[in-house]
Amino acid sequence: MTCTALLAALRDPAVYPEPTTRVEVHETHISVVFLTDHYAYKIKKPVDLGFLDYSTLTRRHFFCKQELLLNRRLSPDVYLEVVAIHQEAHGYRVGGGGSGPVVEYALKMRRLPAERTLEALLLQHAVAPQTMEELARRLVAFHHASTPVTPQRHYGSLAQVQADWQENFAQTADCIGLTVSQQTYAQIQQAVTAFTAQHSAWFAQRVQDGRIRDCHGDLRAEHVYIMPEQIDIIDCIEFAERFRFIDVASEVAFLAMDLERLGCRTLASHFVRAYVAASGDVTLYRLLDFYRCYRAYVRGKVASIRLHEGPPLQEQPSIQRQAETAFALAARYAARCMRPLLVLMTGLIGSGKSTLATAVATALDLRV
């Protein structure tokens, strides 16, 4: 089990196989990342959260290897190897031929510059629409190369989507009054229940059309690096197939939601349009707000879990705001899911209004 002594030791530059002047530490609800001058070492916390189980050393070793394999699909030059952490007579040693017993494993990655994340660039207003188009095309190619999920596995089905939502509601019930209000919780729950009941055919059609793919699963702006020569996308879901084998609409919705959270609504719309244009996946629009709601709610849940872990006092107000903001954003998407839609077609006689209206209605399952 990962212990306090080990976590403290990993802050010491001397335990690493290559020289480094300092070590930075970043912690989430499920992992701790140690940044040396040129590399990042990520270890998994010994936690079992129901949707994720890192409770044993064997499981953490397995999921380190899974993370290495899966992330090489989008960032082959970033993910290097899984290294053992040994306990020696006078401390710990990361890789480098340690002789003592293995007490933990770490995923070793090439360190990327924090200022090149999509999130950092967005906050500096340094992202052009062309960058979002390039990212959209990269994702379309990635999704296209992924093997479609067979219906027998039930990923992306309405039943799986409903089960994921029920898990979310169950795991955030004790957050009511802390990071989410009773009214917001009930509003989102009611909207999700009504939407899935009314549009079950939409979910079935997505499965039938092969839109359920082996995706990234955690497509946040902070996981996208806009490098001068390429776009690197890191930190995909490795701990549960059901969170990675998803509708591509959910993947697109995640980043669109994150862009809107950062105040970049125009770029979010540009990204979605570019993805649809490159993929031809027009019916994605049907479920976009539903999945944006889901993704925002999950962000609220994750921040609430981190807050429950008791982070340092100086970090708690920020994490509290993150959770509250995410739940509020989910509520806005929930309201949009239930809003009636009227599309008006206008134009000169014989210009194709009826033809276009029929095409739009067919794509979005509307009535002319």
Describe this structure in words.
There is one protein chain. This protein is of the alpha+beta class and 368 residues long. It has helices spanning 4-9, 57-71, 118-123, 129-145, 158-172, 182-198, 200-208, 241-244, 248-261, 265-279, 288-308, 316-337, 353-364; strands spanning 24-27, 31-35, 39-44, 79-88, 91-94, 102-110, 212-214, 224-226, 231-233, 245-247. The strands form 3 sheets. The chain has a 6-stranded antiparallel β-sheet, with helices on one face. Strands 7-10 form a two-stranded antiparallel sheet. A two-stranded antiparallel ribbon has the order 8-9. The mean pLDDT is 93. The chain has 3 domains: 4-111, no CATH class; 118-337, Aminoglycoside phosphotransferase (APH), C-terminal lobe (Aminoglycoside 3'-phosphotransferase, Chain: A, domain 2), CATH 3.90.1200; 341-368, no CATH class.
How would you classify the quaternary structure? single chain
H/E series? HEEEHEEEHHHHHEEEHEHHHHH
Q: CATH first level of the largest domain: which class?
A: Alpha Beta
Low-confidence stretches: none
Query: How much helix, percentage-wise, in residues?
Result: 40-55%
| Computed CA radius of gyration, to the nearest angstrom | 22 Å
Number of helices: 13
**CATH fold node name of the largest domain:** Aminoglycoside 3'-phosphotransferase, Chain: A, domain 2
CATH level-two architecture of the largest domain? Alpha-Beta Complex
Across the major sheet, the strand order is 1-2-3-6-4-5
Structural class: alpha+beta
CATH homology group of the largest domain: Aminoglycoside phosphotransferase (APH), C-terminal lobe
- What percent strand? 5-15%
